Amino acid sequence: MKVPVKLGLFGLGLAALYIASFATAGAVVPSHSAAAWAQSTEEHVMDSNDTQPAVSVQGLSMEQDGFLLGEISSPGMAGQEGTLAFTISDAKGTPVTDFEDSHEKKLHLIVVRTDGTEFRHVHPTLDAVGVWSLPWKWNAAGSYRVYADIVPAATGQNITLTRTVQAAGEFAPATPAPISAADTVDGYHVDLTGTLSASEQGLLTVSVSRDGESVTTLEPYLGAYGHLVALREGDLAYLHVHPEGEEPRRGAVSGPDVTFMTEAPTPGRYLLYLDFQVDGQVHTAQFVLTATGPATSAHPGEPAENSGH
Question: Where is the signal peptide (predicted)?
Answer without folding.
Answer: 1-27
